[in-house]
Amino acid sequence: MFRKILIANRGEIAVRIIRAARELGIATVAVYSTADKEALHTLLADEAICIGPGKATESYLNINAILSAAVLTEAEAIHPGFGFLSENSKFATMCDEVGIKFIGPSGAVMDTMGDKINAREQMIKAGVPVIPGSDGEVHTAEEALAVAEKIGYPVMLKASAGGGGKGIRKVEKAEDLVAAFETASSEAKANFGNGAMYLERVIYPARHIEVQILADQEGHVVHLGERDCSLQRNNQKVLEESPSIAIGKTLRHEIGAAAVRAAESVGYENAGTIEFLLDEASGNFYFMEMNTRVQVEHPVTEFVSGVDIVKEQIRIAAGQPLPFKQEDIVLRGHAIECRINAENPAFNFAPSPGKITNLYLPSGGVGLRVDSAVYPGYTIPPYYDSMIAKIIVHGENRFDALMKMQRALYELDIEGVQTNADFQLDLISDRRVIAGDYDTSFLMETFLPQYQEKE
């Protein structure tokens, strides 16, 4: 096992990793920007090193500064968390080159699965269903028009590299495609340095289903069930639950087996997530992409599976085999996660940085967890993602979990900044969400217009 690891991240995920490491008896090193000098992860870690100014490009995305901090503190491994450098193949490769274990897959595997076109080709070889679309990268609007004509509208334009909702455009008809292609390609080039796109036919209505997998260095792959992430705003997840109400026992087995085949086909190591679109009308599911890191929503899977995913990430990276087989994994109850963001829903969810003057996080009872890195008096910097907490609940069944989440959101009190807590409470209390009657279009096309009208 490692003696010391460095966490190349900030916020609640950095705190989550520090806590897991401490429970494993591992010393931790936090890195921080000047804007995060008083951040909780810097206070909890055994050591903390400043790696640059507040802008992420000069600190949390500064590979040389992070590797220098690891070498200086004699850290044996680096956990990247999610976001920032977590899916940067160059970073993973450079860690290996300087003799520091990257807690995640190899850079080569990241390149295969991080590039959506390469991943699509690999999935076809592995017998995993893929969405009808372009055979490779599309570099011009003219090429895109030809592909769209072949597969049929509506189509989804997606950046070949990257994620997080960047470089994605839905196109309903041919006359809108050229402008959408140019905008999405420019956005992709600005964010990922690669403007190449590809096209897929839109599967609508659909459920966004993702399967959590763990893979050790000996080639053993296990899935921990699925999460339903269909409630999204601008392609960003808002609320997640596990298991999905849309999936029965047979389909759960099929989609889980497909995720395992996907990971095995690329020699995957560590934690990862295979994302699918489920066409409820036909019952068919299609591979979307793979996230080669721990997910924001991993706690819902931890609740239903009983597996500590972050601890398993560290153990796998240290060379330990998975301590369980697929038949050992039993999903129990139902879990839901709500993301609490410092943002103002009344003003198009504009970020709301500032000082937290008062804070009460819900607590009490079995099956309630809050992952956060904020505290009373903490000032949220304007440089980073607006998520400040995750509320996760677990119940004996879905209704039990829904009621527990409503109770938790009622208790939550954050003063000094605007948050989306009331928005989340309205969403989790909506009769259609309670009934499980939603898909990827519901939040943007049905719930949000009604919410804004009420406001």
From TrEMBL:
Record-level Gene Ontology MF annotations: ATP binding; biotin carboxylase activity; metal ion binding
Gene3D superfamilies from the UniProt entry: ATP-grasp fold, B domain
Pfam families: Biotin_carb_C, Biotin_carb_N, CPSase_L_D2
ATP-grasp domain sequence ranges: 120-318
Pathway terms, separated by semicolons: Lipid metabolism; malonyl-CoA biosynthesis; malonyl-CoA from acetyl-CoA: step 1/1
EC number of this enzyme: 6.3.4.14
Keyword Nucleotide-binding in annotation: yes
Biological processes per GO annotation: fatty acid biosynthetic process; malonyl-CoA biosynthetic process
PANTHER family: BIOTIN CARBOXYLASE, CHLOROPLASTIC, PYRUVATE CARBOXYLASE SUBUNIT A
Name of the protein in its database record: Biotin carboxylase
Biological source species: Streptococcus oralis
